[in-house]
Amino acid sequence: MASFSFLFAVLAWASFLNAHALAAGGNSTSVPFRIMSLGASVTFGVGSTTGDSYRKDLEDLLVANGNSVTYVGTKKNGNFTDNAVEAVPGFVISQIAALADTAVPQLKPNLVLIDAGTNNCNQGGTVPDAGANVTNLINNIFQQSPGATVILTTILVNSVAAQDACRVTVNDQYTTLATKLQSTGAKLILVNMRGPDGPLVTDLADGRHPNDAGYVKMADVWFSGIQEVISKGLLTKPSTDVTAATGTGKTGHGDGNSTSSAGPAQTSTVATSAPSPFNSAGRRFYSSSAFAACLGLIIASAMA
């Protein structure tokens, strides 16, 4: 009986470690990421204590999975080295598109993360042309950085009822445009920041911008979208035809294939020591209850 209990405990522990590996691992690719985070105040980092927005957490997740990552943009914000970004607080869709028209041809990202439309809703009324304008933005990116993949997000919740209602209608337009563009073969992924995994109203610092916990949730949603990009083989090698420095970068493997005037890419490796309940971004990979259950089984087997 004791040996059976011990065997059961070992199997439970192995299952637990496997679940940990699945949650922690995700997909990785040998293709380096040259990511442009494009948007307004949320992308810039308003509401976070560090100004990092979701960007550092997302980079940590990608690097922990063995990916090479460089952020590109003409602006910088956040308390981390690779903090390039293409975002200005308060900008509406047309202004964000103008940012992209300048930065994308120069930096040629192979992945663009778009969060746009919140400030259009903040101005009041409805935004019936949001979908059409973002479609134009995306198509321009495809032309300006051939081979690029775009991940578009639905926009966040808002504590002001009228502004939040506007965001729902904008998100409906984004869902429609994503379906249409994907049907033409466009390399576009839509992620849902307004879904159950995105920030809630209680995760907002001021009723509009996420707090640190909200930005962690955003990073997780973006990460899920990037997993889809990898699994579908949508990522292409970054262009070498750039007219501006592309940032410092971090790498989990590979050479990063990035040009920079700010120094070499930083290296981060995945730990191979005993399993930890947290990854490099401080996220718990498994629940404490699962850990306690497995530990209890092992103790029980030892006492049997």
UniProtKB/TrEMBL annotation:
Q: Which residues lie in Polar residues bias regions?
A: 257-275
- Taking every annotated instance into account, which residue ranges of this chain make up the domain SGNH hydrolase-type esterase? 38-215
Protein name, as recorded: Carbohydrate esterase family 3 protein
Record keyword rRNA processing present: no
UniProt keyword Cell membrane, yes or no? no
Q: InterPro entries annotated for this entry?
A: Ester_Hydrolysis_Enzymes, SGNH_hydro, SGNH_hydro_sf
Residue span of the signal peptide, if any? 1-23
Alphabetically ordered keywords of this record: Signal
Which region ranges are annotated with the description Disordered? 241-275
Q: Which organism is it from?
A: Hyaloscypha variabilis (strain UAMH 11265 / GT02V1 / F) (Meliniomyces variabilis)
- Extract the GO molecular function terms from the UniProt entry: phosphatidylcholine lysophospholipase activity
